[in-house]
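Entry for LLP complex. Fields follow.
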Amino acid sequence: MNTAFHYQGPLLYTEQLAVSALAEQYGTPCYIYSRQMFSASYQAFSDALGDHPGMICYAVKANSNIAVLNLLARLAAGFDIVSGGELQRVLTAGGDPARIVFSGVGKSADEMGMALDAGIFCFNVESEAELELLNQVAGQMGQIAPVSIRVNPDVDAMTHPYISTGLKENKFGIAINDAPRVYQAGAAMQHIQLQGVDCHIGSQLTQMEPFMDALERVLSLIDTLKIAGIELKHIDMGGGLGVCYQDETPISPGQYISALKLRLADYELELLLEPGRAIAANSGILVTQVQFLKNNEDKSFAIVDAAMNDLIRPTLYSAWQDIIAVDKTSDDPTQSPRTSGTYDIVGPICETGDFLGTDRSLSLRQGELLAICSAGAYGFTMSSNYNSRNRCAEIMVDGDQSHLIRARETFEMQIAGEALLPADKDD
Ligand code: LLP
């Protein structure tokens, strides 16, 4: 809970609007975002960077709705993209191409061409083979590609194994000991301009140490390269700053960036960061309605209308997200009474893994509205049509106004692009 999502009396509000009224207007399940929280979370990074040269490049994968990208573009944010689709989203949303960095291990020649055409700030290159292809593509287009090499500093981010990316055994980046050789190779390529160095060691980091260990290793690479005659202009430390989902006490953007700036004081390097979760997670909730309450021998279940296809984090990463009442009004005799208990909050999908939270103490009745907190990052963007469920709506609240920023999918939208087989010959 934060200032944007708060109770006024018994009712949960997003900024100045009651979530129950929004649920009534737009239906459930739906994601509800706060413009104010998105802006403030971005601004915390941007203010901390202050006049140090550099950019805050929002990691689009966390929440890529074009309204979200547009509001960040209005704040002059940069963007970290990982696909041609994300590039098109940023451009559609009015993002400045000169503030885009392009990450990812598997960029295709087409995606490289699109990004060169757009005039992005930098490619974060993750392998020698990618560097060669980029050189070729840029050559064909008569262009020079700006490049930063993503190195793998081999530090333990001390986070969930699926979202830890900076260890030797991960697929990301070029081993830091191999990097000088790859920089030399790049320096000899006609259509490559070496601009920077890049790393990203994982996501949902709550401590400073892994970031600072990575920084030391990358700075020592920068020193080595300088001696070899390769001077870099920027250092990109990736994303990864954690948020509070339950009781974590992550370092703040201010603490993190101050520590980086202090260590970089003797270098003339632009500082780039690629935060995703820290900007989006606590800027959104997922609102869902209880369909049925059900008791099996050992367990009580609240079956809700959102499911793992809407929010996969709990089941995929065993992630804990708070689940709170939208309306805490005490029972009134005109409604069926609530039942207090320890519930598993589960969806309608035919999988045991279809849960949004387990063992939650709640007082519930059929029809009750619940909010899954901290759902603004990696919520909608990881949603799917599993079980042929239509993807849900997204709403942005701005003060006392609400805007539908994604219409709820219809069946027709869901199957658009699918086709029946041609008729059999003897039909
Ligand atoms: N830059 C790069 C190159 C990345 O791979 C990522 C995230 C970010 C930036 C942004 O990281 P953030 O600031 O959001 O931690 N789906 C998972 C998280 C996957 C993160 C993947 N890479 C989850 O829901 O926890």
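NOTE: Residues 59, 62, 80, 103, 163, 200, 203-204, 238-241, 274-278, 313, 317, 378 surround LLP (CB under 6 Å).
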